[in-house]
């Protein structure tokens, strides 16, 4: 770590330097204050990074007290909230654990489950309907306030199995006992699709018959 220490000093210091221009001057060629060329550091690499803090970090968001570690497709998920924050989430979202490699995340999933019940201390959502929407595995569960401020995530694993629709005592909702249909609406048949008239195959058949007749006439003339 000799080159690292040349640029950054004590390796116990984890705070980014404030004078980035001085770091640039000492670590890059042709940028020395006295006009000379060369490296003050012994390699051409820079360890400068951009420190980004999202704006919601300064705001208070919802807080998840507990959530089930495992759920199954189309089950109800009961999430207990810390009512002391006084913030009622506007939605709960599921974000799949990342499998990033070479800058490509092949497991990107952001889902907003159906919200069945919500108050300051409790939320009930519907788990995704199938593995086509949410492949089985681990997900981050966030409670999100109306201004976009998220909670700290809870871990929920989605697995295959029988759907469980049990509700806490005192919570009643007819929606909680019905399967989610928002992602399983029937697709329109060919005759119902816009821009695809049902008579189109007949038109092609007529054109093909005319073409064959014309070819037959030409063959007779050639004889």
Explain what you see.
With 223 residues, this protein is an alpha+beta fold. The protein contains 3 helices and 11 strands, in the order ααβββββββββββα. It has helices spanning 2-8, 20-27, 200-222; strands at residues 64-66, 70-72, 76-81, 91-96, 100-101, 104-105, 110-111, 115-118, 122-126, 137-144, 154-159. Strands 2-11-10-4-7 form a 5-stranded mixed β-sheet, with no helix packed on it. It has a 4-stranded antiparallel β-sheet with strand order 1-3-9-8, with no helix packed on it. The longest helix has 23 residues, at 200-222. The protein is elongated.
List the total number of helices: 3
Number of strands: 11
Instruction: Compute the separation of the termini in Å.
Output: 91 Å
Q: Widest sheet: strand order?
A: 2-11-10-4-7
How would you spell out the order of helices and strands? Answer: HHEEEEEEEEEEEH
Shape: elongated
The helical percent reads 10-25%
Which sheet architecture does the biggest sheet show?
A: 5 strands, mixed
Q: What's the quick description here?
A:
The chain is an alpha+beta fold.
């Amino acid at each position: 770590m000799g080159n690292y220490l040349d640029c950054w000093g004590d390796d116990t210091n984890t705070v980014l330097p404030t004078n980035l221009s001085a770091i640039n001057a000492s670590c890059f060629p042709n940028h020395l204050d006295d006009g000379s060329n060369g490296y003050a550091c012994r390699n051409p690499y820079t360890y400068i990074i951009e420190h980004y803090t999202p704006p919601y970090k300064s705001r208070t968001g919802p807080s998840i007290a507990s959530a089930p570690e495992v759920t199954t497709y189309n089950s109800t998920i009961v999430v207990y909230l810390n009512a002391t924050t006084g913030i009622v989430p506007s939605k709960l979202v599921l974000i799949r654990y990342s499998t990033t490699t070479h800058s490509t995340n092949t497991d990107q999933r952001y889902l907003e489950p159906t919200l069945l019940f919500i108050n300051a201390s409790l939320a009930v959502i519907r788990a995704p309907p199938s593995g086509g929407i949410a492949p089985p595995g681990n997900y981050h569960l966030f409670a999100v306030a109306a201004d976009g401020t998220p909670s700290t995530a809870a871990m929920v694993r989605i697995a295959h199995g029988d759907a469980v629709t049990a509700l806490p005592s005192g919570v009643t909702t007819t929606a909680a006992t019905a399967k989610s249909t928002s992602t399983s609406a029937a697709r329109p048949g060919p005759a119902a699709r816009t821009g695809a008239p049902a008579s189109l195959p007949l038109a092609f058949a007529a054109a093909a018959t005319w073409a064959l007749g014309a070819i037959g006439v030409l063959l007779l003339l050639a004889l």
